[in-house]
Amino acid sequence: MADPKGFLNHGREVAESRPVEERLKDWNEVYVPGSLLPIISKQASRCMDCGIPFCHNGCPLGNLIPEWNDYAYREDWAAASERLHATNNFPEFTGRLCPAPCESACVLGINQPAVTIKNVEVSIIDKAWETGDVAPQAPERLSGKTVAVIGSGPAGLAAAQQLTRAGHTVAVYERADRIGGLLRYGIPEFKMEKRHINRRIEQMRAEGTRFRTGIEIGRDLKATDLKKRYDAVVIAAGATTARDLPVPGRDLKGIYQAMEYLPLANKVQEGDFVAPPISAEGKHVVVIGGGDTGADCVGTAHRQGAASVTQLEIMPRPNDERNAVSQPWPTFPMLYKVTSAHEEGGERVYSVSTTHFEGDEDGNVQWLHLAEVEFVDGKLTQKPGTERKIPAQLVTLAMGFTGPDRENGLVDQFGLELDERGNIARDADFQTNVPGVFVAGDAGRGQSLIVWAIAEGRSAARGVDRFLTGASDLPAPIRPTDRALMV
């Protein structure tokens, strides 16, 4: 334990954000560059080096949090980076995007603000890139086996890197024009600048991983043909079928799925467009869905100059603090969260449901009609007399995803079985009903967090390695049936 009194001597301090009026003028990350390093050693000293570190249970990767907290406190950044990478391929992704279930499980969090684990993590990895401690790890010898990975999100990239380092020849297939999946086109630049993805891709290329963009398996290349080319296949295509809102007026112009809207803003930052084909500029924007994707739409609309932004959520407003009875420590509680996008303005409305849309004579959406809802006998029911309408000239649907894409033919061409939730079924080694075809990430688990995606990719890689060689030394942090620690 680095400092036995660290948690007594120091309070919790988090990363400093840039002023709202400043950050709304650009698309850079919202945090003040370099603001963490001067405080991070003290923050790391708050870790109590628990005899039973429950933060390990909160994190599906099994991150060695007390160990790299200790190294960060001592400012031994090389050792901290080694411990961090021992369980996580991409800590710069999780350090920026993960909601930190490890902090919810922090023992200190029982009666004090938890250790800033996420901030310590991102400080370590940013320092490691700065000092050159992140280097390619090419395999000593090649196995002669080949693997195709379908999808280049966090699960696909993690599986690909693990398998490449194990000596297999790996090619990653991505249907978009750039590598990264939702990390590239679903996450706005202000949450994670894409330079973080780019340098990881270059590291992986140097290790031997190959990348094939602009190829959609099922459409551009038949799944059966892909299987003939490779000794094993990993499907990490995500859960990309978006939940829709089948109400009157849904076909009006100006209503889009979040993943139709967000990627265009990112493509502007990539230099593909001067201005996005779908823009919130000067419009009254309504975001339907109260989760992280909805918040991404809110922040994007602010930066595009929306006249107003309203975010709707059908569920009641969460509590500000953990309920010790219904959401006891160390479970991951559902709490009211104010993201950087919410700090920038807009209105959040809870316990409402959209009844229909109203448009103008040209077929453009102009109004959203809603009503308040409440739980009656365990079911959400509309409250009489609460109907009203709000201006809506751009509507984004951010209501989650229901499973993998079924329209491109990938599932049917492979002949894959699905589970009761519509995800691709797999066994204990992440293998599907088709020998040699594995599945990792949201395609098999359902919509989940980035930290679970990376854990899935690492675990599936072990299953693939065993299939190809008969044994494996690769780590498998989770089983396919594992779920987050929740009530």
From TrEMBL:
PROSITE patterns xrefs: 4FE4S_FER_2
Membrane-spanning intervals of the chain: none
Reactions mediated catalytically: 2 L-glutamate + NADP(+) = L-glutamine + 2-oxoglutarate + NADPH + H(+)
4Fe-4S ferredoxin-type domain ranges (all copies): 38-69
Coiled-coil parts of chain: none
Cofactors demanded by this protein: [4Fe-4S] cluster
Pathway annotation: Amino-acid biosynthesis; L-glutamate biosynthesis via GLT pathway; L-glutamate from 2-oxoglutarate and L-glutamine (NADP(+) route): step 1/1
One of the GO BP terms on file: glutamate biosynthetic process
UniProt keyword terms in alphabetical order: 4Fe-4S, Amino-acid biosynthesis, Glutamate biosynthesis, Iron, Iron-sulfur, Metal-binding, NADP, Oxidoreductase
GO molecular function, one term: metal ion binding
E.C. code: 1.4.1.13
Protein name, as recorded: Glutamate synthase [NADPH] small chain
Organism: Streptomyces phyllanthi
